[in-house]
């Protein structure tokens, strides 16, 4: 009877064990004498195929271990094998083993082992995201290389919930760039733009990226100024082998390459993003317009002769695009210090031509009642030099020092030739814009990582950032003639340049601007673990401080040409001859200049930002972990301008805001997690949004001005996510989110009877909510080798938002004075948030075979989103969806040469901006009827499909570092 009972109990135990959820074993392996991690030590469960190797920190993890008692065997070259019997694994729990190995007593001098944790692979990024406490998504350098994306802007649009505006700026969950924080190597980046708070992601070449992680939920460690996401770009840090390689890319763009286009000449090394001093404004000019304009017309003309006559246009044939890249990695020892360096140098010279259809409407009772219509021949040439230079010094297993520098020098030469009509006035119009923009962006950081015992880590970062932006001599001119007017000979009368009495941004003039911004940062972060229990993750506390000082100087000058008496003969001349010195006389029948600059066109900004945080993990058994955090942010934002030689304070905002956060993870199984998150965040106004300076956008025919009355917006964020990891490189996740905004900063179209003028205002409130799905699927278990080489990636987002402007908003009028606008009869009080897409879809099929062949097909689309906020007189303009398909093919030859072929935007669908004439929030077909319900295209063009061929050559790699 006892034997039968024992047999039944034994069988029942075996059955229950067989059907029980597996557990896991994790731990660390160190040298018993030196306490250093044993990188690559092997861990195996006796009698099974379950094993793993220790990583760079000596840590390992064994998953899917059957519940029960096992013997664990640990081996390492030149060390004594260690066997650990009776290791008990419970269903769904993690057992922890921390052990040490003793040397065998003899050394194998010829064996040198060095290792580094891989962070740039798809598996590594998935593993990192899985372990993070906040909700996050990411993309690895490995995936970027497969996609052949040229820069961070092209690469990051593969991430769930992310879309790109103007091929440069990132939107997360449909929220504009102002709601996203960008960090490079954990330091906040300076804004790369003057008019908006945004970072231009095309500044970061893809070949210097290690990985990009997008945090969707807040945490105490992250900056509080965000609502869409915190984007962390990590550049390459230290190589695991010596290497030298280079790449050459030749690009062809349909509708651009080999086309004849008009451009203008700039002296200096424009192909390097530089210019000569003769393009800058002479220091001899009086500083204030009031002093300059009191001079006689002849005296002002004498200054006008100092401005070079560089107006003439020339025809060129556009050459193919060129990109060059050189990469160098080295590791060596200086005494007992392990030193490594990575250097990347990039150069590109690219071209873009577009024939842009531009229309403005009267927006009365009848649809398609055209006010102005134009065709813009828009040609631009961009140059960029980028340098990444990183050093790493490993002094010991407990102390690392890094120095990272990123430099970008960019130049953009843009020429717009505009032909069309002012239909209502009965004039033919011919406008020209000749613009050169130069940007210099530098960030350099020194950081240190310290381990203080086994339980405490400390790191610090100090950095300096500089952003310079120059627009030397932006020239604009407008010609016009009466439509259909003919002379005595029956020929159409010639165009005549419009020289207004007082300078204005539309007509004849020259604009100069300079921005200089300097940022100093210091951050200190610490982490301490409490104990090391064997049945769960240890409790941890994290703490840190962050300080930042930002100084900005911005100045602008604007001069307009005007005629003295009747100068029609001169103004009817060719654009290249009108401004010759003999015509700038200041006497009757000649031309002179006036200064249209206002004192407020220059300003100085100071921003002091300090933060401190603390967060901790609370474990509830082996499956649940709660991370609580608190961050406090103090910010003092000041804006000054010199008015009539007196420094005037325009803004002095001092704000302290507490920012609590909560992140909860419940481990449903070893492969499934349920996450919940809450965070309180904010959104500050940028200097440009505050400065009462008016900037003219020639391409959109609109003024943009700041609002000194802006307040800080506050946001409440809630997220929930289910994630499933079928294997180490597979992922399925579903995320839902909700956001509530108080005083969100939105663009506002100032009521005016003539032209478009935008500013920024605080709306009353807003909300945004939606869902995201991400799938990453491989076929490693398939019987077909073709399927084994396939990886599918897809993600989609559905988002809904609504802004409630309230009854009254506060902003500047056309004179710049702050006033309150009653919105009754002016604009809709409720609408979607600007730049908010109702849906985003990304998809990709990746194929890679061991022989070196790779190809992928990628797809991206976003839903219609508000591009320019309207009112009752000027309808809201939407950017319409574009279906973008890219194809990339590459082949490696032996181990040295790789060829890549890329075709981007195969469909070449038009970039289309349409206005909502009937104010129903929907854009219909591109109709031409005159029905009152018709919506209308205001701007439309095609960028052209892009073909690129890259040859990358590896000059040699050494897998064993001396």
Keywords:
962 residues, mainly beta, Immunoglobulin-like, 22-stranded antiparallel beta barrel, 55% strand, elongated, CarboxyPept-like_regulatory, TonB-dependent receptor, signal, Beta-barrel_TonB_sf, Plug_dom
In a nutshell, what does this entry contain?
This protein has 962 residues and is mainly beta. It folds into 3 domains: 20-101, Immunoglobulin-like, CATH 2.60.40; 122-241, TonB-dependent receptor, plug domain (Ferric Hydroxamate Uptake Protein, Chain A, domain 1, Beta Complex), CATH 2.170.130; 289-958, Beta Barrel (Maltoporin, Chain A), CATH 2.40.170.
Characterize the structure shown:
The chain has three domains: 82 residues, Sandwich (Immunoglobulin-like), CATH 2.60.40.1120; 120 residues, Beta Complex (Ferric Hydroxamate Uptake Protein, Chain A, domain 1); 670 residues, Beta Barrel (Maltoporin, Chain A), CATH 2.40.170.20. The radius of gyration is 32 Å and the shape is elongated. The N terminus and C terminus are likely disordered. Helices cover 7% and strands 55% of the residues. It has nine helices and 51 strands. A hairpin with an 8-residue loop joins strand 25 and strand 26. It has 962 residues and is mainly beta. The strands form eight sheets. It has a 22-stranded antiparallel beta barrel.
Topology (elements, then pairings):
Blueprint: H1 2-19, E1 23-31, E2 42-45, E3 51-53, E4 59-65, E5 68-75, E6 82-89, E7 94-101, H2 122-131, E8 136-140, H3 141-147, H4 152-156, E9 162-165, E10 169-172, E11 180-184, E12 187-188, E13 209-215, E14 229-235, E15 242-253, E16 260-264, H5 289-293, H6 297-304, E17 313-317, E18 321-334, E19 337-361, E20 370-396, E21 399-422, E22 427-452, E23 456-482, E24 496-497, E25 509-530, E26 539-564, H7 568-571, E27 590-595, E28 603-620, E29 624-643, E30 646-667, E31 672-683, H8 687-690, E32 694-697, E33 702-705, E34 713-724, E35 731-742, E36 745-749, E37 756-762, E38 765-778, H9 785-788, E39 790-804, E40 808-812, E41 818-822, E42 830-831, E43 839-848, E44 853-862, E45 865-868, E46 877-879, E47 884-893, E48 897-904, E49 911-915, E50 936-941, E51 946-958
Parallel strand pairs: 1-7, 11-14, 33-37
Antiparallel strand pairs: 1-4, 2-3, 2-5, 5-6, 8-13, 9-10, 11-12, 13-14, 15-18, 15-51, 16-17, 18-19, 19-20, 19-50, 20-21, 21-22, 22-23, 23-24, 23-25, 25-26, 26-27, 26-28, 28-29, 29-30, 30-31, 31-34, 32-33, 34-35, 35-38, 36-37, 38-39, 39-42, 39-43, 40-41, 43-44, 44-47, 45-46, 46-49, 47-48, 48-51, ...
Family: Belongs to the TonB-dependent receptor family.
Domain TonB-dependent receptor-like beta-barrel: 496-904
Subcellular location: Cell outer membrane
